Amino acid sequence: MDGRKEDAKNLTRRELLAGGLRWLAAGALVAAGATMTGKNLLRRGDRQAETCINEFICRDCSAVSGCRLPQAMSYRQNTRGAERD
Ligand code: SF4
């Protein structure tokens, strides 16, 4: 009879542990998702904060070396080989 009570207690502990682990895993997933979303929002905010100062004529722009706009990145990529020649 005491053995049954002990089994019931152990089962309850196991269930409690399993439930705790499930909640821990769920919390970890939520935290990871929130972190990734936060990073994406920050990145998007950076991109939106940067505006072109030279009508997207990167060739004549003084900011081309540090500009993070896609046009500048494309310009740098396309002229990388030409600068060495
Ligand atoms: S380097 Fe950047 S700021 Fe300058 S023209 Fe190109 S996109 Fe605009």
Which SSEs are present, and which pair or pack?
Blueprint: H1 2-49, H2 70-84
Bound molecules: iron/sulfur cluster.
The site of iron/sulfur cluster has 13 residues, from α2.
Helix count, DSSP H or I runs of 4 or more residues: 2
- State the separation between the terminal residues, measured CA to CA: 90 Å
**Gyration radius from CA atoms, angstroms:** 28 Å
Q: Domain count, please report it.
A: 2
Structure description:
This protein is mainly α. It has two domains: 49 residues; 34 residues, no CATH class. The chain contains two helices and no strands. It is rod-shaped. It starts with a helix and ends with a helix. The relative contact order is 0.06. Iron/sulfur cluster binds next to helix 2.
Defining traits:
85 residues; mainly alpha; 2 domains; 2 helices; rod-shaped; binds iron/sulfur cluster
What's the quick description here?
By secondary structure, the protein is mostly helical. The chain has helices spanning 2-49, 70-84. The protein folds into two domains: 1-49; 52-85, no CATH class.
